[in-house]
């Protein structure tokens, strides 16, 4: 288990080990626009992107559901993506921004929208990560695109165990370097999305709804990783009540934003 997970102190989820983390992302492109939506256990976001055929000209982000009182403020730093070429790959977009100043998930959604601009049409990503009940026990993580399986990893403690060619590769720091070499096209986009899904899947270990009102600054291991956990925002950030949803048995509810 990563040091980040080990250092994050919170009430444990007694049902962890019996469920599945699910994230769904929908991208819809029309002439000059892309509407992108994301929902998972802790987040509900929507981004409307406008472009002139070459570069991003407008971003209209919407925070529908988020864990902290300060998350809505992340719509401002997202404007740093104005002017980015719509022909950029995900790894190229990431290099053009200070990630620590962004809401990770809102930024990733906007990144996928940028990649989708030239492609057009609609696509639906479904990412899943099974609970890992025991340290060292590999569990299944998958990425489906429009219902077709693109990636299937066996992972344990932030490390890919299978397929064999990827054995030992990290899903933490250093991920982008190996993933950019191993994948291209839709598979590269799938890897980008699945790694972020694995990160958020760790939230299932905890009873986050029992932490309403807790100050973000108490989450020592998380400081500096995103907009809410950055200074000076972290000084005002507190967890919101009733923000989690378990989609283990009802994936059809994803993107309903109930």
Question: What can be said about this structure in brief?
Answer:
The chain has 258 residues and is an alpha+beta fold. The protein has helices at 3-7, 90-94, 104-116, 175-182, 185-201, and strands at 20-30, 33-39, 44-51, 56-65, 121-130, 139-145, 148-156, 159-162. A hairpin with a 2-residue loop joins strand 7 and strand 8.
What attributes characterize this protein structure?
258 residues, alpha+beta, eight-stranded antiparallel sheet, 5 helices, 8 strands, 19% helix, DUF2889 family protein
Largest sheet: 8 strands, antiparallel
Which percent bin holds the helix content? 10-25%
Q: Low-confidence spans: pLDDT under 50, at least 5 residues?
A: none
The total count of strands amounts to 8
**CA distance, first residue to last residue:** 32 Å
Mean pLDDT, rounded to whole units? 92
Number of spatially distinct domains: 1
**SSE run:** HEEEEHHEEEEHH
User: Quaternary state, please?
Assistant: single chain
Global morphology:
globular
- Strand order in the largest sheet: 4-3-2-1-5-6-7-8
Protein architecture, described:
The protein is an alpha+beta fold and 258 residues long. It has one domain. The chain is 19% helix and 26% strand. The protein contains 5 helices and 8 strands, in the order αββββααββββαα. The chain has helices at residues 3-7, 90-94, 104-116, 175-182, 185-201; strands at residues 20-30, 33-39, 44-51, 56-65, 121-130, 139-145, 148-156, 159-162. An 8-stranded antiparallel β-sheet has the order 4-3-2-1-5-6-7-8, with helices on one face. Helix 4 runs antiparallel to helix 5. The longest helix has 17 residues, at 185-201. It comes from Sinobacterium caligoides. This is DUF2889 family protein.
